[in-house]
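fwd from M.: "can u put these together and see what the complex looks like"

so here's what she sent:
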Amino acid sequence: MNPTLVVLLYSSLSAGTAVLGVGPFLFNRTLPVERIGWANALAAGMMLGAAYVLLVAGLSPSHSVVPIAAGTVLGIGFVWWTHAAAGTEELSLNRLDDPGPTYGYQVLLANSLHSASEGIAIGTAMALSLPFGIFVALAIAAHNVPEATVLCAILTGRRVSVANAAGLAVASNVGQILLAIVTFAIVDAAPAVLPWALGFAVGALIQLVMVELLPESYRQAGHRTIALVAIVAMGFVVLLSTFAP
Amino acid sequence: MTATPLGVFLAALVTALATGLGALPFIFLRRISPVAVASANAIAGGLMLGASFGIVAESTQYGAWQTLAGALLGVLFIVGTQRLIGDREVSFGAVRGADARQMVLIVLVMTVHSFAEGVAVGVSFGGGAALALMITLAISVHNIPEGLAISAVLRPRGVGILACAGWSIFSSLPQPLMAVPAFLFVETFRKALPYGLGFAAGAMVFMVLEELLPEAYDRAPRPLVALQVSLTLVGMVLFQQFL
């Protein structure tokens, strides 16, 4: 298959799995706040695992460290800046009681920007090698499920229908398809960009975990529960990566 | 020059002493605001996560399942220790309560993790004596941020600078102790290595996730904490690449 098609296929799959996040709402109208914390911690652990896998893969063929380091600073800075610019740095990603329209838009915006960084991660991993890229895309796909559950909890709480919530969850993730393909194409054309893109993706993923996913989850469920869920999710991704090509 | 057990011990002792240097940046830290404690927690958390990334990357090369088993034990170890000290009134110097529990935990976690690192040092000495000086130097430099992590937790809670350096060095003392038997019985210890390294990583990551990060988020603005964790995490991983 054409490599670009592989990228398209798997990044679409990764965006599409967000639809599964609606699962819990087919049976219940609402989800206990504690479960939402679990979902956030699951997403956080998997994303931290993906960042680890990318970073280790990038370092092992001895790409020079300096552009990777510079890339991570850019990635961390990008996430920090987009939150600061959008006024969403303290945005709680699971407030179920806010009826204001601003909050709804902010949540969708934050989710869309979040998925952009995931797209860069997938595109870079694909450029390293297609099988490795497929592994990272699948890890992000799995991560997108609990993430979409959190989003659906907010949306259905705002009287959005379950079907529309599922649609919006996928829609907020389509950015990653575009960015995966663009990143892949650029790195393919100019391999010197690879360590920069890799660093950017790693930095952005870690910063997303630290600023969006973890902080709120601690308030939704106990510290120990969150730490356990996150470390198990992370360990799972890391373990699977050792069997990945 | 071939490495002797005494040489390995002395080299590992030097690396342990280097850990004390991690206290240096805290000489001038006096004012103890909640934000300072949060920052220190975030930096310690980032350093420990970064160190764990490096440890896992090395350990999985020896065996992924063994690493996982070790990590599970590491998590259980922290949970068990917390249960043990959660029941009684802990004090660390003049400090009591939740702060003291965290101080005890970080010294304990870093000390226990040094056992695994000592084994790694001993095994790598067994690999080739020509590299001995390089390894000693590399591990010494690698230990400084670990002293930094410990001091970052102890210092803002009122521990003196010399005591910070002392506890940092204490946490690394298992390195010379473990390096010698690991060097003498390389083959046996090589098999145990992924378990030990996995244990160290599991304990450190779990402690960061359960103790250091939530408290940091409680005491300081979220973007500040996130920025500090992320930067120190990648900084630590990339820094290790130069060693």
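replying to her w this: Residues 50 and 238 of chain B are 9 Å apart (CA to CA).
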